[in-house]
Design a protein that fits this description.
single chain, 369 residues, alpha/beta, Rossmann fold, 6-phosphogluconate dehydrogenase C-terminal fold, Alpha-Beta Plaits, six-stranded parallel β-sheet, four-stranded antiparallel β-sheet
Length: 369
């Protein structure tokens, strides 16, 4: 029978201490774990160490020596080798990873690790992070509420999957278990395709800017929102996209077919069909909520605020004092400066009270949805 320490996974090692690794370390330490970490880049490791989430180790072997759980959060090209090394150096630990593509990682681990060791490998993917990178941007809040996918293989010990599931939940994330190939197919659409689309849109606008010097001056909030991911780390994303190339190519093909269909409707002047396409997408987007409790319906209010210190705090305080819970919030800065627009998402059944509270606080809300 597993020991209490093994059951609780209180001793954690993080291999790869960039944004995700350092954030996982901070979340684990917040939950009471003892965390050691190692990174092949000494400067990255030192920065992660100063963040308070982990104790730096001199080597991978030293980091995993007493671990109940090893989390491999290296760039995808180094994941499988790091997993195999951790399985060998920590013979009683569960080993998981944070790679955003599962099938090629699993195949390489299977090909190089002993079968007995592979039973302790529970592949995973914490779906957090941003276009920023590096441990200097790490925070335990990166893990809070995110979906953390676990993709056990037929060789994986079911008990280890369950222990890791409980641990993931314990540090604030939402564990979801699914097959590796299904994970890769789904993330190609909801994670990898948005990066491709954002990068392509930004590249298209940059090409236009080369001939029209004022093009980017006209870029408003929508363009800025859609191209945010284009600021992501190029080397990281090129590795991810190539690793999941078959699924990403299929997702791009699907996107092109839908884009072609919409183009044809616009070119034909079929306003009703264009409206129907937009309406279907709008309804799907409004159902996209981090909280299952509000998936039955949400309302979105647009409110202008001054671009000055404390402006966001004031509007959230007004809603808080009025008993209105914010389900989601987005800020769109005006390119002219001086003001910004806040999009506030609330549960549909509180839409009226949200409007009343905002109006009573001196704001002029406009309902978008």
């Amino acid at each position: 029978m597993a020991s209490p320490d093994r059951m609780a996974l209180r001793r954690v090692a993080v291999i790869g201490t960039g944004l995700i690794g350092a954030s996982v370390a901070l979340a684990a330490r917040r939950a009471g774990a003892v965390v050691a970490g190692w990174d092949r880049d000494p400067e990255v490791l030192a920065t992660a160490g100063t963040g308070g989430g982990l104790t730096p180790a001199a080597s991978l072997d030293e980091a995993v020596e007493h671990a109940d759980l090893v989390v491999v959060a290296t760039p995808i090209g180094a994941v499988s080798a790091s997993v195999v090394a951790a399985l060998a150096s920590a013979p009683s630990a569960i080993v998981t990873d944070a790679a955003s593509v599962k099938t090629p990682v699993i195949d390489r681990v299977r090909a190089t690790a002993p079968t007995a060791d592979v039973s302790r490998f529970v592949p995973g993917h914490p779906m957090g992070g941003s276009e920023r990178s590096g441990p200097e941007h790490a925070s335990a809040s990166v893990v809070d509420g995110i979906v953390w996918v676990l993709t056990p293989t037929p060789e994986t010990d079911p008990g280890d999957t369950e222990r890791l599931r409980v641990w993931v939940e314990g540090i604030g994330a939402r564990p979801v278990v699914m097959a590796p190939d299904r994970h890769d197919r789904l993330v190609a659409v909801v994670s990898h395709l948005p990066q491709v689309a954002s990068t392509t849109l930004m590249g298209t606008a940059a090409d236009l800017e080369a001939g029209e010097a004022d093009a980017l001056l006209l870029a408003a909030g929508g363009f800025r929102d859609l191209t945010r991911l284009a600021a992501s780390q190029p080397g990281l994303w090129s590795e991810i996209l190539v690793a999941n190339r078959e699924q990403v190519a299929a997702a791009i093909d699907l996107f092109i077919r839908r884009l072609d269909a919409l183009r044809d409707l616009i070119a034909a002047g079929d306003a009703a069909a264009v409206d129907s396409t937009f309406d279907a997408a709008k309804r799907a987007r409004l159902g996209l909520s981090a909280k299952p409790t509000v998936r039955a319906g949400v309302a979105v209010w647009q409110v202008e605020i001054p671009d000055e210190p404390g402006a966001l705090a004031r509007i959230t305080a007004v809603l808080g004092e009025g008993g209105v819970n914010i389900e989601d919030l987005q800020i769109v800065h005006s390119p002219e400066g001086g003001r910004g627009t806040v999009h506030l998402t609330v549960a549909a059944d509180t839409a009226g009270s949200a409007a009343d509270v905002l109006s009573g606080g001196g704001y002029d809300p406009i309902r978008l949805a």
